[in-house]
Every structure is written in C-alpha cells, then in structure tokens.
C-alpha cells in the first residue's frame, strides 16, 4: 500500500521531473497535499488518458473576444492602467494578470511574475512538464524565449528563462502577431 502511495506521490508531486531521492524524507507528509493540489486525470472517450485542449477559449477567465466592459465585469477595476504613448496600447493589470488592449480590442492576456499555474478554458493547469504535455501536447514550435502552442487563431506562449523555468504565459491572437 505504501508503495502505491509513493508511486502516486512521485507522479503527481510538484517536484515531478526531479530525482525521487531528493525528496524521500518529505514523501509521507506531502502525499495528501500533492494529490489534493493536482487536477483530476480522467479517461477520454477511447479509454486513454488525454486532456489535450483543442481550443484556447479563455485565459484567467478572460476571452480574446472580450471588450473592456466584459473584463471589468469579470475582474473588477484594474489595479493599474498604463497607456504606451507610442503604440497606443494600454495594459490593465489585475494582480499578476495583465490584459493588453488596443482601443477596445484585447491584444493579449498575460500571466507574469513566474506563475506556478495558469487557468486555461477554466482548467487550472500546473506549469509542470507532465501537465503541459497532458493538456497542451507538444509545442507547435520552440522559440528562443519559450514554447508556443497554436489552436486556431489563438496562440499560447510560455516564456522561459535561461534555466528553462517558466517566467510568464501569454495568450494572444496569432493573426495579429
């Protein structure tokens, strides 16, 4: 029984990808926390385990089709709004969620400040390799500064630093980039 619990812990742990012996002493106290924090894995129609998102509808509860009124209704008043005098773009900040707009159209939605997870289509996705592959599959391409996933006209970019850690995530309309 303890072997099954340790196996589950090693697969669902927030340290997935690190060697198991690095955290053996913490195993017994972290098993319940690790199982509670991760999203459920449910079999798909064919009985396999795949949660790949076919579209990117919302990011942090906001759609690229939303207007400023919609964003305000969903998130309230912005913590700050900064307009770039040269480009005309305005960034509305809501904590670590940034909504970039030009006139009344959303240009991008960003999560910065080294996020641990993102909320895409209402699903909380931990920014760990296992969960990224599960929900997003393999990147459509890898840029110098991160991984890009494209679904229709929307693109999700996970920005990485030199060590490979995710430092920000952006959803944007791929047709205007």
Structure description:
By secondary structure, this protein is an alpha+beta fold. It folds into two domains: 36 residues, no CATH class; 109 residues, Pathogenesis-related Protein p14a (3-Layer(aba) Sandwich), CATH 3.40.33. Helices cover 21% and strands 31% of the residues. It contains four helices and ten strands, in the order H-H-H-E-E-E-E-E-E-H-E-E-E-E. It has an eight-stranded antiparallel sheet, with no helix packed on it. A two-stranded antiparallel ribbon has the order 5-6. A hairpin with a 2-residue loop joins strand 8 and strand 9. Helix 1 packs across helix 2. The radius of gyration is 18 Å and the shape is globular. The termini are far apart.
Order of helical and strand elements = HHHEEEEEEHEEEE
Number of beta strands: 10
Strand % is: 25-35%
Oligomer: single chain
The helix/strand class is alpha+beta
CATH class of the largest domain: Alpha Beta
Number of helices: 4
CATH superfamily label of the largest domain:
CAP
Radius of gyration: 18 Å
Search tags:
10 strands; Pathogenesis-related Protein p14a; alpha+beta; two-stranded antiparallel sheet; 4 helices; 177 residues; single chain; 31% strand
């Amino acid at each position: 029984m303890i072997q099954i619990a340790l196996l589950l812990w090693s697969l669902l742990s927030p340290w997935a990808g690190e060697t198991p012996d690095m955290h053996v002493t913490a195993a017994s106290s972290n098993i319940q926390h690790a199982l509670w924090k991760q999203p459920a894995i449910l079999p798909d129609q064919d009985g396999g385990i795949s949660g790949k998102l076919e579209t990117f509808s919302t990011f942090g509860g906001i759609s690229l089709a939303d207007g400023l009124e919609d964003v305000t209704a969903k998130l309230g008043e912005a913590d700050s709004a900064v307009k770039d005098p040269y480009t005309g773009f305005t960034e509305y900040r809501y904590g670590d969620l940034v909504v970039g707009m030009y006139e009344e159209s959303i240009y991008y939605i960003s999560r910065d400040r080294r996020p641990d997870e993102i909320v895409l289509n209402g699903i909380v996705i931990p920014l760990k390799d296992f969960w990224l592959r599960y929900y997003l599959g393999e990147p459509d391409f890898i840029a110098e500064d991160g991984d890009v996933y494209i679904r229709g006209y929307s693109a999700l970019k996970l920005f990485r630093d030199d060590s490979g850690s995710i430092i920000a995530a952006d959803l944007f309309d791929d047709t205007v980039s």
